[in-house]
């Protein structure tokens, strides 16, 4: 039960879309990564960058390890993709144009902008991200008119969404045994 | 006589600081034009009836949702008719009396009241007329000034915002320091030489309590298109604190300093109100390394960088020049986004001209070429 959002002006670009089998295969991998993260006390988000049937980047949140609050799984994976290109001496731009991000949770506003800047055309994700989501939950960076911020991307949302939510809930329960505390607004 | 060179230097610095103004980037609610709604008002022809009329009109038409609107005003919108002590009362919004045609021949005060008066005895009320009243409470003095021209309006003034909008929030010594920080960012930008991204930006992270620069960085997009000056600066701060994901050693203008031991505990100044407690950071198990820091950046951050600053819990951001896709004022105001768990203050215009010059033609309207 996926929902899709259209890219404004995408009619000019060649249609590039993962098949249902692709989605099933790579999202299972992403979910395995998220599950593994959960069992290791990490934020249960799994993500994979897939190009031509090959994983060219994958990541897990490295915020604590690097003391850098921007080291989300997607940013780590995008760095791996760039490294993969450098290593193989291939042009990152042409690689990115035919790369799909599979991620269990909607990318945040920052990661969505980073995906635009690298011209990733398609993002497949599980559940929405109410606190930070950049594909419609907080802002819709994925489809916004931002001519100086790379290109808009297509989202395929909702694949195994409930499962992704449950993992996040389980994580926040084990993090905060006294129930998650919603942040109060300071107005 | 004072020795001249010192004085001259000081006055030059002051002249320089007079060349720019740091203006706050406020939320849409604070910066939008005053929205007006049409309403009916009527003169009070018998002053003795005033308090009764106000009470009766209030119970018939409570003007819910407009608590900032005063019910009566001195007569006349400047035409002076009616004498100094006569008043006009707001009867109802036009939307409260949807079937009334104010241009019709039979239009009178009775047209605005239900049959039987609805509890309002119209004695002492003159012929009604159309006015416009502000739909929302004014949040800033400019909004209040516009609103008050139409109808008297209550205003709970945030004095700090008023002073900030006049460009007078920062003292001369503060401006001199701010200028020094932005100059460090400009210098880094020039050293970065465009960074492969055209008109490269520079950024300086500052601990305002200790009055020291914590990290300086510039665009390094040639190597990694995501290495915008702000992202570089955030990672340099992390590195200065024993973390960091990258090495920027080959860029001599990208530097970080580790915090001197005990610098924060010995500081008598109160923390800025935007800063969060260490306990709160620890609670989520996340390092909020930029808590309480100020970022000076030559160009308005993009969406990625603006959200990176949210994740890093930045204290305040100062930028020089606006950017076409900027996310702290131009396309978005991520620092005022209600759904996000961290908000912060943003000021633009610090060394604005120098920062615009740095950007070259990139940010100018496309009239050239
Ligand atoms: Zn993210
Ligand atoms: Zn940026």
Walkthrough of the structure:
The complex is a heterodimer of chains A (187) and B (369). Chain A has 187 residues and is of the alpha/beta class. Chain A contains six helices and six strands; from the N terminus they run βαββαααβαββα. A six-stranded mixed beta sheet of chain A has the order 1-6-5-4-2-3. In chain A, helix 1 packs parallel to helix 6. The C terminus of chain A is likely disordered. With 369 residues, chain B is α+β, with helices and mostly antiparallel strands. Chain B is 28% helix and 16% strand. Chain B is built from ten helices and eleven strands. Chain B has a seven-stranded mixed beta sheet with strand order 1-11-10-9-6-7-8. A four-stranded antiparallel beta sheet of chain B has the order 3-4-2-5, with helices on both faces. The radius of gyration of chain B is 28 Å and the shape is elongated. In chain B, 39% of the residues are buried. The N terminus and C terminus of chain B are likely disordered. The chains are: A alpha/beta (187), B alpha+beta (369). The interface between A and B is large, with 42 and 41 residues. Bound molecules: zinc ion (ZN) (2 copies). The site of one zinc ion has 6 residues of chain B, from helix 9.
